């Protein structure tokens, strides 16, 4: 395809802000502004406060790392065959260097972190104005996305730093959970109560350790006290027990006793609550508990199966979102017929040497792979004579059996 033709067919359009005035519709409802949900426990829950929970931090880190580390490439369908196209300009951008400041790993990780925490991962496609080739991807921080508008069946993005509204064909958009399929909703919009309680448990633990477990209480006396002495005794005990340090000793006389009225860590089942909150976080982010280091129900026999489920249930849906967005936004109309982006989720499957050897042996002996294909999977060079698939000598088709029978007679 000539450069001129590619430029003409490239889905590259810039629209002025006036192009969408009139009956345009804001589809976001202002969700892209910084929000803070207040839980019933009084905790402010947003992506920043939630990251202080180790389970949330690790869940986001795990999923974004898995998407970022998976091999990515452009493939072309030719009949029944599929061929990798490393020379295609899109291949370099998605598998090596999307822009001058980021590797593909750091770019895809940032894209996924935004999608997981804020509901939307956004990047602007920069194209050469003469050839139409994609030159780079400009990652957009979520706070810089003002809104998304719809007019005449098309979407337009209002992004800080860009004078004109951008057509959706110029924007890579990876949404999370969504009601309309256009914009994603942050998980914290609905996880406020769960995560608020989890944050409260962290606050309780911090205060409990800080006060050595003596958070509140009453002083019991056998004698009647006037108001002023009561206040003086209470203030003195509060000052003594809350001044900090490792040795805070208060002395009570005349038959007085101190009775704590706040539950201690054991009475509040703090450890059990932390386990529950970790499991809840795993549900909100659709990730297996063992992937965020919660190994209570993990065993040697089921950990491999859980890893497979992580790939199919957690990572594959996100990978599919990215693939479909790239397929539509990064290829010309002609290329979309037989070109596609593939994110190889099989790379997540890691097993022991014995199991891998058995799989490779079966795939070679039964003709699933050639010997050179297996060598390439292990980053070994191809060798002459190893490109033909093998077939078991005692495995024949009906046609082959009939031919062999005729030849023998």
What is the structural class?
A: alpha+beta
The SSE order reads HEEEEHHEEHHEEEEEEHEHEHHEHHH
Distance between the termini: 57 Å
Radius of gyration from CA coordinates: 31 Å
Largest sheet: 5 strands, antiparallel
Number of strands: 15
Strand order of the largest sheet: 1-11-10-9-2
Beta-strand percentage? 15-25%
Count of discrete structural domains: 3
Note the total helix count.
Answer: 12
| C-alpha geometry | flat
Poorly predicted regions are 1-22, 30-35, 265-271
Task: Describe this entry's structure for a reader.
The chain has 409 residues and is α+β, with helices and mostly antiparallel strands. It folds into three domains: 1-212 and 263-350, no CATH class; 216-261; 352-409, no CATH class. 38% of the residues lie in helices and 17% in strands. The chain has helices spanning 3-9, 47-50, 54-69, 89-95, 104-118, 192-210, 227-242, 270-284, 303-329, 353-365, 371-377, 398-408; strands at 14-15, 25-26, 37-38, 44-45, 72-78, 81-84, 120-127, 134-140, 145-151, 154-159, 165-167, 171-175, 217-220, 257-260, 339-343. The chain has a five-stranded antiparallel sheet, with no helix packed on it. A hairpin with a 2-residue loop joins strand 5 (72-78) and strand 6 (81-84). The two termini are 57 Å apart. Mean pLDDT is 78; it is low at 1-22, 30-35 and 265-271.
Summarize the structure.
This protein has helices at residues 3-9, 47-50, 54-69, 89-95, 104-118, 192-210, 227-242, 270-284, 303-329, 353-365, 371-377, 398-408, and strands at residues 14-15, 25-26, 37-38, 44-45, 72-78, 81-84, 120-127, 134-140, 145-151, 154-159, 165-167, 171-175, 217-220, 257-260, 339-343. With 409 residues, it is of the alpha+beta class. The strands form 5 sheets. It has a 5-stranded antiparallel beta sheet, with no helix packed on it. The protein has a 3-stranded antiparallel beta sheet with strand order 6-5-15. Strands 8-7-12 form a 3-stranded antiparallel beta sheet.
